[in-house]
């Protein structure tokens, strides 16, 4: 269960303060599939970074499974980032000196999964996103859409109960995008995975059961 | 005038050869507006890099304004990249230690434009893409869509006769994407700028007068 109470976030640039989130309150139940939509620059990635424990709000409260995140210690936060939440970054964030396979293995190395098991799982995940023939490529040897699919496979590595995907089909053609959405939805069907998906694509939003709109840092109905 | 004759491109990975473009022949007339579409990994960016003189074909001929590109010297190529062709990269390729304004100024610095004139032009271009209030931000202080719009403004800096845009609206919401397409099409109306636009978005392709489809490294009708 994800609960935000009047979450605000401002950045400081020189002496100017830039308010980005101006008071977001929302609840996402376990097993929900939610689309997050809004204009470029409206605060979607900022909100996802807070929900994913990658950034902290300037004020307000974030409660994850009934525990206030601001009361958690470093180890608890590290556990959440590695085991509880899978994150697909908008700019992929692949490690350039690792191959596609190694990028997908990385979360499993942190989670202590054995070598043989993690290689098999990583190959299985690359296959699920249509890239079994690119496992030995480095990110610079992959197309934009292929890099995005490696980032998706990596987010699924530890089969986390929550997946936060920031425009997961942005670099994909319609058909490839559809197969990725079907993969994510199948995880929700099979394991009850909670999905929050930022998208600019109305078709992707239509796959989700609920749509949350954000504009200028505030939710709009 | 852009003319490709049986252009092929293969990458070498360890000892394996990966054919990516398998024989592309096409002509783009001056002032045309062409959409380039195809599945993820089909060779769109590879083709655009060759047309933009950022990469060379493994075999085949590329003739730009009646001059074979393989016969050009370094200075001629540098002139084409700086003055003749504006390129919007799929992954933006902004310089991280420069502000949005400085990124847009960069092509004009290479072209020898005076300081006052280039600052005014750069500000005007940022305004045209809706980012006049973000001119002092570094790329990491901008959202994904804002970075993309800075990359678009930079490609227009020297008002080049050819613009190659690799998924220019991939990170933009529908409304922002529409205003960017209207900006590009207005350049075609006013100056006769030739546009080649890679896209996964059928709406963007519908703005173009011609659509070229690519699949597995070959053009399909
Ligand atoms: N340096 C490289 N070494 C080996 N293979 C490469 C290299 N760069 C690209 N490729 C391969 O070339 C193919 C075409 O890549 P390209 O970037 O042109 O695709 P694309 O059509 O732009 O796809 P997308 O829509 O995902 O951006 C891909 O299968 C990719 O794996
Ligand atoms: N480090 C920073 N310093 C200052 N401002 C920032 C910083 N990071 C982001 N911003 C600003 O915060 C606002 C929200 O950014 P965010 O990345 O959340 O937008 P978004 O909704 O994800 O947009 P897009 O659809 O373009 O990805 C933007 O206006 C951006 O300029
Ligand atoms: Mg974003
Ligand atoms: Mg591409």
Explained architecture:
Two copies of one chain form a homodimer. The first copy, chain A, is of the alpha/beta class. Chain A has helices spanning 44-51, 74-84, 100-110, 115-128, 144-155, 174-191, 202-207, and strands spanning 2-13, 16-28, 33-37, 59-64, 67-68, 85-88, 162-166, 194-198, 210-215, 218-220. In chain A, the strands form two sheets. Chain A has a six-stranded mixed sheet with strand order 6-7-8-3-9-10, sandwiched between helices. Chain A has a four-stranded antiparallel sheet with strand order 2-1-4-5, covered by helices on one side. In chain A, strand 7 (162-166), helix 6 and strand 8 form a beta-alpha-beta unit. In chain A, helix 3 (100-110) crosses helix 4 (115-128), helix 3 (100-110) runs parallel beside helix 5 (144-155) and helix 4 (115-128) packs across helix 5 (144-155). The mean pLDDT of chain A is 97. The A-B interface holds A 11, 13-14, 37-41, 44-45, 90-91, 136-137, 141, 143-146, 148-149, 166-167, 170-177, 200, 202 and B 11, 13-14, 37-41, 44-45, 90-91, 136-137, 141-146, 148-149, 166-167, 170-177, 200, 202. The structure holds adenosine-5'-triphosphate (2 copies) and magnesium ion (MG) (2 copies). One adenosine-5'-triphosphate sits between chains A (11, 13, 18, 20, 38, 40-46, 90) and B (134, 137, 141-146, 171).
């Amino acid at each position: 269960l994800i609960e935000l109470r009047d979450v605000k976030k401002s950045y400081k640039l020189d002496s100017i303060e830039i308010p980005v989130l101006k008071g977001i309150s929302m609840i996402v139940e376990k097993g929900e599939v939610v689309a997050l939509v809004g204009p470029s620059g409206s605060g979607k990635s900022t909100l996802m970074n807070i929900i994913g424990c990658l950034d902290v709000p300037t004020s307000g409260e974030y409660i994850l499974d009934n525990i206030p995140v601001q009361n958690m210690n470093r180890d608890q936060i590290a556990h959440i980032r590695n085991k509880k939440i899978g994150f697909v970054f908008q700019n992929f964030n692949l490690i350039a000196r690792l191959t596609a396979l190694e990028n997908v293995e990385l979360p499993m190395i942190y989670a202590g999964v054995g070598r043989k098991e993690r290689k098999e799982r990583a190959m299985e995940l690359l296959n699920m996103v249509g890239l079994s023939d690119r496992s030995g490529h480095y990110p610079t040897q992959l197309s934009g859409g292929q890099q995005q699919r490696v980032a998706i496979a990596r987010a699924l590595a530890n089969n986390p109960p929550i997946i936060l995907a920031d425009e997961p089909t942005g670099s994909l053609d319609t058909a490839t995008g559809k197969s990725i959405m079907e993969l994510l939805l199948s995880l929700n069907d099979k394991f009850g995975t909670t999905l929050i998906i930022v998208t600019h694509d109305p078709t992707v939003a239509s796959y989700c059961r609920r749509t949350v709109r954000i504009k200028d840092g505030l939710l709009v109905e």
